[in-house]
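cron nightly-structures :: item 1 of 1
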Amino acid sequence: MTIYFLERLRKLLKSIGKKESKIDDLVRFKKFQKNIKNYQLDTNTEINKDNNEINNSIKIVASIAFFFDKNKISILNDVCKNLKEISNQAEIYIFTNQITSEQEENLKKNIEENVQIKIIDEILNPRLLPWYHINFMKKIYEERSEITHFLYLEDDISINKSNFNYWLNSRKILKKFNLIPGFVRIEKNKNDGELYAIDFVKEDKFKYSPKISIDENYFFINHKFPYQGMYLYDRELMKEHLYGPSSNPDCGHGAFNERYIDARMINLDLMAKANIGLTYLNVPEGFYSRNVLLFDKKKKIIDERCQIQHLSNKYSNTKSWFGNIKLKDA
């Protein structure tokens, strides 16, 4: 009998927990509505502007964490190739673990020219490899003022020129709101041919999502699943990241600072936290995070310029907690 009542109590408390989450979402949305007048855009906002100056004035430093795997080198090369197409002044650095001279030669031979390999000889733990780019980026930031943008990627995330152009345009619009243009990782399912938003673990509620109307065709929309396996920052955002709490692996945990406790960050693993950056810091009232996506009102879908390919294609084609929500339903 005691076990029966305990089981009933457990189910009741679990149900209350679900209700609490829904109430939190509603409270957040009400706070957004209260401040909605602060999120009005100018009538001359241009979201479709072509940035022809990318190759002339944009100088990108990109770092990629790659724990050596000969079977993944071709995917890594595709990532580098797409980065090179964004700007002829893109500098790409691959951070990898201690490897043999033969493996290093194999890596160099099968990667785009002028990509630099940085071998970390003595890693305390393999899961710390993604964090080695922080000090490197800080040095670049301090010593090279001509660098305009900083990019950190997991080794299977493809960013193209259209993605970058969207980020440049959106950054100009969103800067005054303290919001950051975001991306959504996509995969194509081999069985149904559909695109999947792999980091959405359930469908988000469009009605209660904070939205900034751009024009009759587009919104910026804020959502609950902002993980994207990378970050892209200009110098202003990179300064905030490098010299703030987000560059500390313990950020979000009470052991670091009680002011920054965040359950969403506590539940992220160490490798994932390396690309979270400013996502959950200094978030405007009423928003889930700093990241917003471009949403096509007519097509009722996240705009393709926000979509970045997850080249390993492993979630939507296997049984997983991730990769179960179609992009059109996200």
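cron nightly-structures :: done
The chain has a mean pLDDT of 87.
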